[in-house]
Amino acid sequence: MATLRRNGKRGAAVWMTIDSGATGVTLPATTYHSLGLDLLRDVRIRTEDARGHVLTRDAGLVPDLVLGPLVVNEVITAVGGEQHVLGQSILSHTPWEIDWDRGKLTLGAAPWADQPTVVSLPLRREGDSEVVTVDLGGVPVDLVVDTGAFASTLPESVGAS
Description:
- By secondary structure, this protein is mainly beta.
- The chain has 2 domains: about 1-105, Beta Barrel (Cathepsin D, subunit A, domain 1); about 125-160, no CATH class.
- It is about 10% helix and about 50% strand.
- It contains 3 helices and 13 strands.
- It has helices at about 30-35, 90, 155-160; strands at about 1-5, 10-15, 15-20, 25, 40-50, 55-65, 70-80, 85, 95-100, 105, 125, 130-135, 140-145.
- A hairpin with a 4-residue loop joins strand 9 and strand 10 (about 105).
- It is globular, with a radius of gyration of 18 Å.
């Protein structure tokens, strides 16, 4: 749960979708306006929905976004849609990990110790994405790690071989 604050006073606690494939933060207009904030004049943000459709949304500025011990000031956000999305503009502030079994996001996460039961793949940043290279039938393929994706996609050339 994240807390969105206006000048450290007026705030809203909201559940947010952690989407490592999203560049930034997106808030529904009702949430944004409940903070008493105005939209940024003449500023629009290009986003994509879960199906890859490109959308252009109004932009806003949230003075403080609090996520556990992490406080990020002056968060530019896309305003619109129905989901509260937290993307790389926030996640990139600290190392993090998701424990799917416990349903827990850990900020400031320490790297896992090398153990025989732990499989680690090198992860690298390319632009706003985290990328891992995997071997699929002898073909190295770069995949974007996207915790918000509803499906995995592969290049057509991998399936053709």
